[in-house]
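note to self: dont lose this again. the chain is below, predicted strucutre after it. 200 aa total, dont forget to put it in the shared folder this time
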Amino acid sequence: MNEMMDEVSGRKAFRGIIREKVHTTIAAADQGNIYALTDNGFLSIIPGTFWDRTSGLQILHGLTSEEWQSQQVMGTVSGPTYATRLIQSNLYVAPLPPANHSWAFEYKTAFGVRDGNDGSAKQYFTRDDDTCFLPDKIALFWLSYAWKREKGFEHAESQRMFEGSLAEVMASDLSPRSVNTAGAQSQRVGVIVSEGSWPL
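---
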């Protein structure tokens, strides 16, 4: 079961392993250790979810090394647009943010198991009454597939059943959105200027 959790958690951010973090900024480039800001199961920040709730501006996350070094050359004057990067285990931001802004982001965690004793989240099963975020049928398909594979039995059909059921759950896990053939709607705050179809 723990092997299953490792494999499935590495594929996609399911509801059960998505967390939200609201962080109060400090006036420094280093905002602190990401595992202390979130939890020890932190895997990655979900793209497009990082916002400054105080100013209403989106924060760019995931700068490359080149982009980060370019930011350092530009100086440390304040905002209005901020960009972040994980360096080792710490969250860095450029330019320097003001203190006491409320920043929020969603992140993917490896803590997909719920403890059967106190309900706390953890990475692996350690008790018989622990549960996880996956539907029971997925776990049963995995166990059938993994047991047959371990014993050297034919397991292709069990693997197909597991992968097929998992793909179905992955496709429907998060609330589906209606399709907009005009393109994605902007989530930006403020004046919205259309990217195209301007009258001449």
